[in-house]
Write a structure and sequence with these properties.
Strand order of the largest sheet: 1-2-3
Shape: elongated
Radius of gyration: 28 Å
CATH topology of the largest domain: Serum Albumin, Chain A, Domain 1
Largest sheet: 3 strands, antiparallel
Order of helices and strands: EEEHHHHHHHHHHHHHH
Number of domains: 3
Strand content: under 5%
Helix content: 55-70%
CATH superfamily of the largest domain: Nop domain
CATH class of the largest domain: Mainly Alpha
Number of helices: 14
CATH architecture of the largest domain: Orthogonal Bundle
Number of strands: 3
Distance between the termini: 63 Å
């Protein structure tokens, strides 16, 4: 017996599943077809079953079923517990880009408007540099500096919210690398489900796509870490063992992501064991 979107067909005939497009859309979502034994059909089979009268009616019904099915999938995708977190991370990344660009332009403006400007100011942290501009400037430049400072405060608040939200959505990943880095990993992966299905080797270099493509094109050294380098366990590790720490951490993150996706709750026993293994990987031999 062959199962199609509109019904079931075998040597004895055809049985229509339903004439309701919504019911047929739910049927489409539940079908699991073995392509080795699948036999393609044309619209005449549906006509012979009595579902439609001609090809035009077949195409109209098929289009309606596909449209309903697509809407159902979109609605389901927005019900995921990580959907809001991904949007928060992307907004945070946009804020970073805007703040960095405005800071760069403000410094260049200050440089041309202040003859006493010295290159030493460029080594100041961004927040202090904006403070210098606010103190010594007026007019439009002062207002721009005020706005940059306000955006920086907004960014700090959003970072805390992202971290808190990640602790809820990614409790095990957050316990290993912190909420902010865990959220960035999930965002780059495309969601918690995608992250949970990734092998540790992919998680290890997630976020280092440019270096990876450069390695593939020109033979430059392959990247040993991506986003996970932001975590202290990796960037504070001695250079000789940094790659090993990144590899072990990525492997444990792969397991943590699966626990987060399928269980949705912290596993203290796993977290303790994973942290001990990561600390062991960071020890010099």
């Amino acid at each position: 017996m062959q199962h199609y979107w509109f019904g079931d067909v075998d040597v004895e005939g055809c049985r229509i599943a339903s004439r309701n497009p919504e019911d047929l859309a739910r049927r489409v979502a539940s079908l699991h077809t073995d392509m080795d034994s699948f036999e393609p059909i044309d619209w005449r089979t549906a006509q012979a079953c009595g579902l439609v009268g001609d090809r035009g009616e077949y195409l109209r019904m098929l289009r309606e079923v596909c449209t309903i099915s697509a809407r159902q999938k979109i609605a389901a995708s927005y019900q995921g517990k990580d959907v809001e977190l991904l949007q928060m991370v992307r907004m945070l990344d946009e804020l970073d880009d805007v703040i960095n660009l405005l800071h760069e332009r403000a410094v260049e403006w200050y440089q041309v408007s202040t003859p006493s400007f010295s290159r030493k100011y460029r080594s100041l942290p961004a927040r202090k540099m904006i403070g210098v501009i606010r103190k010594n400037s007026g007019g439009g430049l002062r207002r721009v500096a005020d706005e940059i400072d306000r955006l920086a405060g907004l960014r700090s608040g959003l970072m805390r919210e992202v971290s808190d939200r990640a602790d809820e959505v990614l409790p095990n990943c957050s316990a290993l690398i912190g909420g902010l880095v865990a959220a960035r990993l999930a965002s780059r992966a495309g969601g918690l489900e995608a992250l949970a299905k990734m092998p540790g080797s992919t998680i290890q270099v997630l976020g280092s796509e440019r270096a990876l493509f450069s390695h593939l094109r020109s033979g430059s050294p392959s990247p040993k870490h991506g986003i996970i380098f932001q975590h202290r366990r990796v960037h504070n590790a001695p250079k000789e063992v940094r790659g090993r720490v990144a590899r072990v951490l990525a492997g444990k993150l792969g397991i943590a992501a699966r626990i987060d996706y399928y269980r949705g709750a912290a596993d203290p026993e796993f977290i303790a064991g994973a942290q001990a293994r990561i600390d062991e990987a960071g020890m010099m031999e």
